[in-house]
Design a protein that fits this description.
The protein is of the alpha/beta class. It contains seven helices and nine strands.
Length: about 230
């Protein structure tokens, strides 16, 4: 799955770089993305100096040097290994509302070409959990409260030692902002995601499972492994 998704992303990057002076990408930060991003680092024939990178969400309230920050995770996993043209981190401090507005402005400076995302245990995309997800959100970046399932997933993913260490709020790109990208690659490994994938593929298209909206996106490709595929023989 990691090899297949990385190869497809790299092929799309090369194609765009042949006809554009720059490519703008948004990356999810989660352990589920590790294999894809590691494989993407190894792909050849990509001029990363023409690629500008963003990420799609960040916790509010962590120390600036907190290792759980998504900006740090992406630096360690991807950004520090490749000569990107620019990397734009979400920095919520000192004013999260102002940070959301500034990040939205930066995203809007030019079209977004590619988004690499996942699906959460509760069906979220970015930090658009079911209680706050809005398929018609007028904002591009906003402050959200994280629901209990989302916060517990961060512990289960070993990003935090205890539930009460997980921040209650975050900044996130909204669903309409993500869907306006030209191409989406959604990578979802692991048995804990099988229920969310089943609801995304076979349940109603509703904010009770935010990722269900991806079924309406012809420009989105879903990558699963045997454990996350609800239709695979077990």
């Amino acid at each position: 799955m990691g090899a297949a998704s990385a190869s497809a992303i790299a092929t799309e990057l090369r194609k765009r770089l042949r006809r554009q002076t720059q490519v703008r990408m948004i990356f999810a930060a989660a352990p589920s993305q590790t294999e894809t991003l590691h494989r993407l680092r190894e792909e050849q024939g990509i001029d990363w100096s023409q690629v500008t990178a963003f990420h799609m969400d960040e916790y509010i309230g962590l120390p600036a040097d907190g290792p759980q920050r998504f900006a740090h995770w992406l630096d360690k996993t991807l950004f520090a290994h490749l000569p990107f043209k620019a990397v734009h981190h979400i920095i919520p401090e000192p004013d999260p509302a102002a940070a959301a507005e500034a990040y939205a402005t930066r995203l809007a400076e030019a079209p977004i070409d590619i988004v690499c995302l996942g699906i959460g245990v509760n069906g979220h995309i970015a930090f658009n959990d079911p209680p706050v997800a809005d398929f018609h959100d007028r904002l591009d970046v906003k402050i959200v409260a994280l629901d209990e399932t989302c916060r517990q997933q961060q512990v289960d993913d070993q990003c935090f030692a205890r539930y009460d260490e997980v921040p209650e709020q975050a900044l996130t790109l909204t669903i309409p902002r993500l869907l306006r990208a030209d191409r989406l690659f959604c990578i979802v490994p692991g048995s804990v995601k099988r229920g969310a994938v089943r609801r995304s593929l076979h349940g109603p298209i509703a904010t009770s499972c935010p990722a269900s909206i991806l079924r309406q996106q012809a420009h989105c490709t879903l990558y699963l492994d045997a454990e996350s595929d609800p239709d695979a023989e077990q």
